[in-house]
Amino acid sequence: MAMAFKMATTGMWVTDECKNSFMEMKWKKVHRYIVFKIDEGSKLVTVDKVGAAGEGYDDLAASLPEDDCRYAVFDFDFVTVDNCHKSKIFFIAWAPTASRIRAKMLYATSKDGLRRALDGIHYEVQATDPTEMGFDVIKDRVK
């Protein structure tokens, strides 16, 4: 049976698949991003989509629904001004304007529990439309 980590504040459970996929992204660099969703019926936070290492930020943005909430983590690789290769992990809370109020509330109250389960996140971005999480926003955060 798959194990899960319970988020006490909301009664949501984060599946081991979520944590394992995150660790593979963080340590093995096999994923560029992971999109998570909440299954309201089972109260599980599950992996919705995984982006291969060769995919980019535009692929992540395109995988987020226009009318439903999601969480995502993105492994952002960049080169510093002194030519050092770095990587920072972004947590994105996606709650588009067109999503249901109930979904927005559920995702808002479950966010911190998921963040605690995923150790190693550097930055957080909250977005209600694509411009709030544009690639320029991500680049500006790591400066």
Automatic annotation (TrEMBL):
PROSITE patterns according to UniProt: ADF_H
Record-linked Pfam families: Cofilin_ADF
CDD domains: ADF_cofilin_like
Domain ADF-H: 11-143
A GO biological-process term: actin filament depolymerization
CC terms in the record's Gene Ontology section: actin cytoskeleton
SUPFAM superfamilies for the chain: Actin depolymerizing proteins (SSF55753)
InterPro entries cross-referenced by the UniProt entry: ADF-H (IPR002108), ADF-H/Gelsolin-like_dom_sf (IPR029006), ADF/Cofilin (IPR017904)
Keywords, comma-separated and alphabetical: Actin-binding
Molecular-function GO terms, alphabetical: actin binding
Family under the similarity heading: Belongs to the actin-binding proteins ADF family.
Protein known as: ADF-H domain-containing protein
